[in-house]
Specification:
437 residues; TIM Barrel; Elongation Factor Tu (Ef-tu), domain 3; 2 domains; eight-stranded parallel β-barrel; 23 strands; 29% helix
């Protein structure tokens, strides 16, 4: 009997319905979100119960899956609330929950035995014996600790239960501590990282001060802004997709529930091209350099982060991009191509405003113009790119645009306004526009 290999899953984040739409449009097989209880992003509102149900319907209409994080470490007074919350998630159509706390795991499986439970990377699962324990408790998947190497993942897969799926992070921010087990934020600000409240003091700039010389700073600077000795690089495992799949990873996870829809779309698009072979490695790498990011590392997959092996695996991904503070960025998000309804509403609002002022306007002068909901400044003569699913950015030079009244513009400097651009090729609603620096 032939055992069929599982389909590889691209798992993208979303912090709201707009981000969820971007993830689905640009190729995610599944999306993970936070809900209203025990989600490990306390500074983000997460999805309300109403929006969570909408998210599940939207994801399933696209033939995809929805996972919800319930991965904060729970206090005793929160445990009695777990069962009802998990039942609500199941009734809403959620395909799986992601947990860290074994108490939450036990409560969830008791309440909904047939709901899949994935073990969060926050649980620091680094060995097959721990995986066996989680499997025996009812987990169907484990998200591996980021600190494992490819060699260690191979051993993990060989000795863990065969039916237990393995998921791994392939892109995004990394914690300087073991998968988030850090007390610096709690100590310095009273905000616990294990409760989703991390203030990220590891990203702050530090100077060295000798205790008997307060106020006298010693020059150990990396640059003029100080020393960020605790701040980790961002993970990028683009060159290692094949090796990770061969090691047994079936779900490839992108970090970033608090990232913008532009970030989610760009990163999802890059890894979709890589998994499907619809673009070259350079196409995908260029996409990953277009978004705002810290310098890249392959993490612990190939040697230690920053080692010669790690650096060699990334190639041009190390040097591409322009410095913007501590970040690298090649592109600025310009806006999103709007659908007919959004365009019609903008024109109708413009006509009503003009009528109230005693003016008559006709709206856009040409029905072939592309409506775009703007995000950042751009002007005539700029070279813009249109990002569509499963393809690299397609450039054009902007030579004409007008507002919803039909008045020609030489620039757009107001966010969230609908303007109409002349684009020399077809653009679909949901496509993204950006400007390369």
């Amino acid at each position: 009997m032939t055992i069929q290999k599982p389909k590889l899953e691209l798992l993208s984040p979303a912090g709201d319905l707009e981000g969820l739409s971007a993830a689905l449009r640009f190729g995610a097989d599944a999306v993970f979100i936070g809900g209203s209880f025990l989600q490990l992003r306390a500074s983000a509102a997460g999805f309300t119960d109403e929006n969570l149900a909408k998210a599940a319907a939207k994801v399933h209409a696209a033939g995809k899956k929805l996972y919800v994080t319930v991965n904060s470490f729970a206090y005793s007074h929160e445990i009695p609330k777990v069962a009802d919350y998990v039942r609500f998630l199941k009734a809403s159509g959620v395909d799986a929950i992601i947990v860290s706390d074994i108490g939450v795991l036990a409560e969830a499986k008791a309440a909904c035995p047939d709901l899949d439970v994935h073990i969060s990377t926050q649980a620091n699962t680094m060995n097959y014996r721990a995986a066996q324990v989680y499997y025996d408790m009812g987990a169907s998947r484990v998200v591996l600790a980021r600190e494992l190497s490819l060699e260690e993942i191979l051993e993990f897969r060989a000795k863990a239960p065969k039916a237990l799926e393995m998921e791994a992070f392939i892109h995004g921010a990394m914690c300087m501590s073991y998968s988030g087990r850090c007390l610096i934020s709690a100590y310095m600000t009273g905000r616990s990282g294990n409760r989703g409240e991390c203030a990220q003091p590891c990203r702050w700039s530090y100077h060295l001060v000798e205790e008997k010389r307060p106020g006298e700073y010693f020059p150990i600077e990396e640059d003029e802004k100080g020393t960020t000795i605790l701040s980790s690089y961002d993970m990028c495992a683009l060159p290692l997709i094949k090796q990770l799949a061969e090691a047994g990873i079936i779900s490839f996870k992108i970090e970033g529930r608090m990232k913008s829809p532009f970030y989610i779309a760009s990163v999802t698009n890059a890894y979709r091209m890589a998994l499907d072979g619809t673009g070259t490695f350079n196409d995908a790498a260029k996409e990953l350099c277009s978004i705002s990011h810290r310098p890249y590392t392959a993490g612990f997959y190939i040697g230690q982060p920053g080692s010669p092996e790690d650096q060699a695996s990334l190639g041009d991904l190390l040097v591409s991009g322009k410095v913007d503070g501590e970040y690298l960025r090649e592109c600025t998000f310009i806006g999103t191509a709007a659908g007919p309804r959004t365009a019609a509403n903008a024109v109708e609002t413009a006509k009503e405003t003009a009528a109230a002022e005693g003016r008559t306007v006709s709206g856009p002068s040409d029905s072939s113009l592309t409506p775009v909901v703007t995000r950042n400044f751009f002007r005539l003569g700029d070279t813009l790119e249109v990002l569509s699913p499963s393809s690299p950015g397609k450039p054009f030079t902007l030579d004409y645009m007008e507002n919803a009244e039909g008045t020609p513009l030489d620039r757009s400097n107001q966010p969230l306004k609908t303007v109409f651009l002349r684009v020399p090729f077809p653009v679909k609603p949901g496509d993204l526009l950006r400007m390369r620096k």
